[in-house]
């Protein structure tokens, strides 16, 4: 049980500041990038009117996510933000599935990964909102319904980052802690594979989808 | 009568374990009872497919039970845990872990019964959509478990983290507050998520071809309804990881306990309310799929407003922790 | 540990602030959720009036929010004034 909360860290001293890098997370994220690149290469290797099977899978995937983006935004914006949404979902889903392979860990288990993705989504949504409405109209919304609600409105916007990233982090980390505890209690007999299937594949996919959809929805709330 | 440290810890662990399983059984029992009641109604409506309904009921109940299984795991761990170097602060941590898991399982258990019940009833209406209904029910009730998973994370951290070096005053209040914060806040979010999932199963039974839109709206609604329990988790983390200076005054301890209580209770209402908003939106997405975008937007606006009270509660908690 | 009167009062005020905001948030949270649910129902029935219905919903929620704001005010008074 001593593995609970153990992190390999690389601490670099740069101009008097300590920069901490969580090595395992970075390594796992690079593995995810490699997997995505391989998948992308397979899907786009020989594009033709008679698609081979990787191309079919890739097209179905991109088509489905573009459709979802179009439902929430309009057609023009969907073309702009669709690639982002596809990339986000692919990264999250492969990250969450990575834990079912022995010796590999989900990069999303570390709060830094979901938090940075959440901050990224927040800035994209707000920049999109400022571009669409102009800074004046954008700023005016914070003074709704009365001017002194401004601090609370800002807090509720910032709370979105917290909620979106903690949701993913809590689910993935919770799943891996539960698997660890149950494996310890049952001496890794019988139950753990089912738990990996439930928390790794099922909950991992749902939470990746939820994160992606919420990013789309936050953009659509800002631009409308 | 002077107790030794070890006796205090055993006292806390046993009462915490009892509360964890006792409270943890409440929700799942109600939820599964609802599923079974709806399944009975479904069989009386359409006795020919009672086999399908029975299968679906069992699958739904198995998922609804997971919250109370989490509680069982925590209770067993609390009963058989041996603390290496007994310290009075561990007693507070173990008691906090017990309440956290017990309260946290109530909402999720109760909520995840709804999708099961509505799916059973839906199968009797639309036997052709049975597989769609079962899939949607599984997704909905799995997402309902998220608040219970958060409680379990906090409970396990309270049990296995080393608080030995922290001063007893006021850290004991921080640890019990951490348990209350996540545990109480999970009640509303779990129940609310269940309402949304139930409405989605009912909607798919009416209009099986809207399944994509309905599931998406349900997931977004449930995710937003979980926000109050995420605030609870955040406050718990702050209470567990922040080092508080030693002080013998009661006020410092009560401030930390108050912080946990505020976010905890404050999360119940918004969690249920957000679930109701999601329920309304999901129900009408199924009936009027052309307005799905409009409904999703108004659901989010309504939920954001109803969440503001949870945000006030979190602000009060943060003021209690950092300012006072 | 000797507990003095002033300390006890401070302790009660802090716990009271937590309880006030915590319990006070339950009602508005559920109430505003109900409003939002009914607004969704109304838009589902009559999508043309979406703008009007959104405005009505927001006004209704603002009114039912007021008790939550009272709790916040009382909690802040307990924290900083008492």
Number of strands of chain A: 2
**Helix and strand run of chain B:** HHHHHHHHHHHH
Structural class of chain B: mainly alpha
The end-to-end span of chain A amounts to: 49 Å
CATH architecture of chain B: Up-down Bundle
Strand order of the largest sheet of chain A: 1-2
Helices, strands, pairings?
The complex is a heterotrimer of chains A (224), B (324) and C (82).
Chain A: E1 9-14, E2 17-22, H1 23-44, H2 53-72, H3 75-98, H4 112-140, H5 150-185, H6 191-223
Antiparallel strand pairs in A: 1-2
Helix pairs in contact in A: 1-2, 1-3, 2-3, 3-6, 4-5, 4-6, 5-6
Chain B: H1 5-45, H2 50-64, H3 66-80, H4 88-111, H5 113-125, H6 130-144, H7 146-160, H8 168-206, H9 211-225, H10 227-241, H11 250-287, H12 292-323
Chain C: H1 5-24, H2 26-45, H3 50-80
Structural account:
The complex is a heterotrimer of chains A (224), B (324) and C (82). Chain A has helices at residues 23-44, 53-72, 75-98, 112-140, 150-185, 191-223; strands spanning 9-14, 17-22. With 224 residues, chain A is mainly alpha-helical. Chain A has a two-stranded antiparallel ribbon. In chain A, helix 4 (112-140) runs antiparallel to helix 5 (150-185). The mean pLDDT of chain A is 84. By secondary structure, chain B is mostly helical. Chain B has one domain (26-323): lithium bound rotor ring of v- atpase (Four Helix Bundle (Hemerythrin (Met), subunit A), Up-down Bundle). Chain B contains twelve helices and no strands. Chain B has helices at 5-45, 50-64, 66-80, 88-111, 113-125, 130-144, 146-160, 168-206, 211-225, 227-241, 250-287, 292-323. The mean pLDDT of chain B is 90. The model of chain C has no long low-confidence stretch (mean pLDDT 88). Chain C has 82 residues and is mainly α. The chains are: A mainly alpha (224), B mainly alpha (324), C mainly alpha (82). Chains in contact: A-B, B-C. The interface between B and C is large, with 65 and 54 residues.
Brief descriptors of the model:
heterotrimer, B: 324 residues, mainly alpha, Four Helix Bundle (Hemerythrin (Met), subunit A), 85% helix, C: mainly alpha, F1FO ATP Synthase, 3 helices, rod-shaped
Brief description of this entry?
The complex is a heterotrimer of chains A (224), B (324) and C (82). Chain A is mainly α.
